[in-house]
Amino acid sequence: MTIAGIPIDARHLAWLALAAIVTVTIAAWSLLPVEDWIFDFTRWIESLGAWAFVAFGVLYVVGTLLLAPGSVMSIAAGVAFGLWGVPLVLLFATTGAAAAFLVARFVARDTVEQALEGHPNFKAVGKAIDEEGWKVVGLLRLSPPVPFAVTNYFFGVTNVGFVPFVITTLLGIVPATLVYVNLGAMGHAAGTGQGNHALRWILLGVGLIATIVAGMLVTRKAKEKLRADA
After folding, report:
1. Sign of the CA dihedral with 116 first, then 118, 120, and 126 last
2. Which of 89, 70, 91, 80 is nearest to 40 (CA)?
3. pTM (2 decimals)?
4. I want to staple 100 with a disulfide (CB 3.0 to 4.6 A). Which of 51, 110, 152, 210 is the partner?
5. Per-residue pLDDT tens digits for 166-220
């Protein structure tokens, strides 16, 4: 792959993605009223009491079905619930993914297949899933640059089974969830003047390393499949 005539390999893409995340985060803190948003959002969540978990869960599942960015919703979970956002995101993201999968498989299969027409990358990945099943699903789940909400529908029109899909999704989104929820939790701590716990930095580091490695593997796998089908 080339960008502006410069050859880019899987390792370069992984580091570019990481640099983009860091740059966007710094820019957001500098240019946007993030602290005010954090305060307002946290106050709204606290006002719901015990219903906060239910309300957030409904918003996450519906947002997933409507193709809302999972990263934004996961960061919001960190803002609202701190590290407790990790299990919440794993539960709600997997539920939303399962719902989208079932919609694509049994309700809107023709529509999804038509939407994917003309996209050779999706076709190549679909063939890889036909051959290796949940392994390819797992690699894609480990890679944050791959749109979570879109691929939920895409997986529904492949031959991967529902149960393997759900289990692989739950396990595969753990690293990215650690990254995004920790970003939200650390942003909340900074915005409210609280100190950052060492555990947050450890989990953030583990998540970043895992996502970088996964991004390299996914890019390499996709390129191999595209070359094989050329």
Report:
1. positive
2. 80
3. 0.71
4. 152
5. 999 998 888 888 888 887 777 666 555 555 555 555 655 665 666 566 656 655 6
